[in-house]
Amino acid sequence: QMLNGECPNAKLNNIVEPWFLGGGKDGPAGQEFAEFKNEWEPKGCGFHASLDTVPPPTGPRMALIAGRTADNPKLLRDVIEAGCTKVMLEKPGATTVADLESMAAFAAEKGVDVYMGYNKNIASYITKAREAEGKIAGAKTKLVTLNAYKREELEECFTRNAEGMLKNMAIHELALAATFYGCRADNIASIVVNKANSECLTLGGKTDFVKVEFTMTTTEGTSV
If phi over 0 gives left and psi between -120 and 50 gives alpha, with beta otherwise, what is residue 222? Predict the structure, then answer.
């Protein structure tokens, strides 16, 4: 959208991509990225294998971080040290609460605002489902996420998303539960797992859910 000029108050000036401009440049995806670079670089968007070669900002600059969750604490500090005044951080932000708290403290110390977007919170289908739920007595909205991974792709998925399904994928539904249904860490009365629709595997040394279905109930009696 920014490349196409659809955001009147924002312009995409630089893209930092260490893998496709480095070790992964000769693979199929690297070749596709090279085509993307060749299209947009002449139009004024800079491409960099490292943050070190990005020109310093001459005004307000926002960094959008989209990488492996485990790398986010360092990436956040790096872009702030490079002069970014705002940061959009990909969910779930970090692998631990302690890392998130440390990142928040560092950003506050530097006077940098950090945002983390959960797109389902503003998705029209969630809004419509909640509106319908509110109009029908006894109605409940079931929150579902489906991903099109093939069975043979799961090991790579487990490795790349090592923080686990709950933190990486179900985090969207947990955010909805917190935002709209009042679920908090300190008011969960019970979590009931539907074992018939759940599966856990160990692949590549990582143990995680392939799928999981559960119902959370709060001390206030709300179930989601």
Answer: beta
Q: Is 82 exposed, middle or buried (0-12, 13-18, 19+ CB in 10 A)?
A: middle
Over the stretch 14-62, which tens digit does the pLDDT of each residue have?
Answer: 999 999 999 999 988 999 999 999 999 999 999 999 999 999 999 999 9
- Tell me the three state secondary structure of residue 54: coil
First-residue to last-residue Cα distance in the chain: 34
Classify burial at 39, counting beta carbons within 10 Å of its beta carbon; exposed 0-12, middle 13-18, buried 19 or more.
Answer: exposed
Half-sphere exposure of 29 (CA within 13 A, CB side): 7
Question: What is the rounded (10 degree) CA torsion for 20, 26, 32, 37?
Answer: 50
Cβ distance 197 to 211 under 8 Å?
A: yes
**Rounded distance between C-alpha atoms, residue 188 and residue 191, angstroms:** 8
Tokens of 150: 């093939």
What are 21's two structure tokens? 């401009």
Dump pLDDT digits (tens) for 181-208.
999 999 999 999 999 999 999 999 999 9
Q: How many residues does the chain have?
A: 224
* pTM for the model: 0.77
